[in-house]
Specification:
CATH class: Alpha Beta
Number of helices: 2
CATH topology: Archease, Possible Chaperone, Chain: A, domain 1
Largest sheet: 6 strands, antiparallel
CATH architecture: 3-Layer(bab) Sandwich
Oligomer: single chain
CATH superfamily: Archease domain
Shape: globular
Distance between the termini: 16 Å
């Protein structure tokens, strides 16, 4: 995998991958890393500059591990895009914590229905995969890094 492009505002880079596409995502916290992963995924699929916050979707997810939660998070956003034709422009994770039942993530996603006249749809992502999935804390720098591969 190699660096292909750096997203506006930083926080992620697109990685070349045979027959797929990947992201390497960074953040100073787990929340920032998950938000940057979402931004990176939508950067690949469709730039969100022309999207307006007309609706808000609430997301609540549970998982046993951070890696499972990351895949569930991106898969849920992909479902909003593909299944509900909803294009986000703003993503805010309001809770990401571990409790006695595992991990929980709550988020507010603002956006609008996909309008093919205004929204430039670029790369179709079919699925978020576990292939080469990585989510680690660099304890020396106290920063998170995630790597995700998407089926395109």
């Amino acid at each position: 995998m190699s660096k292909k492009d750096v997203g506006r505002g930083g926080g992620f880079q697109i990685l070349d991958h045979t027959a797929d596409i990947g992201l390497r995502v960074y953040g100073s916290s787990l929340v920032e890393t998950f938000e940057n992963a979402a931004r990176g995924m939508f950067h690949i699929m469709a730039p969100t500059a022309s999207v307006f916050p007309k609706e808000v979707k609430e997301i609540v997810l549970h998982a046993d591990t951070r890696e499972e939660l990351l895949v569930a998070w991106l898969s849920e956003l992909l479902y909003l895009f593909d299944g509900e034709a909803f294009m986000p422009c703003s993503i805010e994770i309001t809770q990401l914590e571990e409790n006695s039942h595992g991990l929980v993530l709550r988020a507010r996603v603002s956006g609008e229905p996909v309008d093919q006249r205004r929204h430039n749809l670029e790369t179709e992502i079919k699925a978020v995969t576990y292939h080469r999935l990585e989510l680690v804390l660099d304890e020396q720098n106290n920063n998170w890094m995630a790597q995700i591969v998407f089926d395109v």
